[in-house]
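Page 47, continued from p. 46.
Same chain as before, 271 aa.
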Amino acid sequence: MTQLLTSEKCRDIIRMGPEAFRQLCQKLRGTGRVKDSIRSTVVEQVAKFLHIIGHNVKTRTMSFFFHRSGETISRHFHNVLHAILSLEGEFFKQPSGEDVPYEIRNNSRFYPFFKDCIGAIDGTHSRVKVSRVEAPRFRGRKDHPTQNILAACGFDMKFTYVLAGWEGTASDSRILKDALSREHPLRIPEGKYYLGDAGFMLKPGILTPYRGVRYHLKEYSSIIDAVDRELLQEQSIDRSQSNQPRDEEYRHASLLRDNIAFEMWNVYQSL
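Result:
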């Protein structure tokens, strides 16, 4: 372990620099869920965990290189995993919306145009290994099984919300509905919104595309109802009935986007 933390290959092996790794070990040790043992230190256990998730290494492979039983490797992995999950409340904090993000407030290019924007939201597909029976549900846009993960982050590049577990074939609408209605939901402060590269400008009163066609809502309380309507539309055989509302939604979204761009251009010309 000492050689690992002093080697230039540290990032290649555990996907993390030496100082960040030391701080992570200290943080996980403080949870009480990862402890030094006679044959394995906290540093070794965390290093094994990071190497496994960073390189998709199997337990039996780690067992060979670390001279530990497969049961020991698995136990250490899950100890570290549970310790990391226990820190969720400390690191995943959704924005209150009370303050304009520093990155917006102190950038004349974005302020005041995005003063009510609290972050960005988007989905990503992560590869998973599932049984052959479940594989078709997880094989969506990719050739291999994936999870469709919804994530939100602030402008400081820190994640504020993550919803994982949905199969790759699940639509963004279905996952968004779940995120908004869970026991611990994605929260959107009144008057604020999220921007999304692949689909959403999401805020109380409006859920409309930043790029693409989604929804135009009248009230915040109707967000989930609107998602339900799209889910029904997806299942409908006759798509023609939904073309007109979607055209209206697209026009509204384009107008909203163009208005912001127009205001920014006017400011730029006046400089």
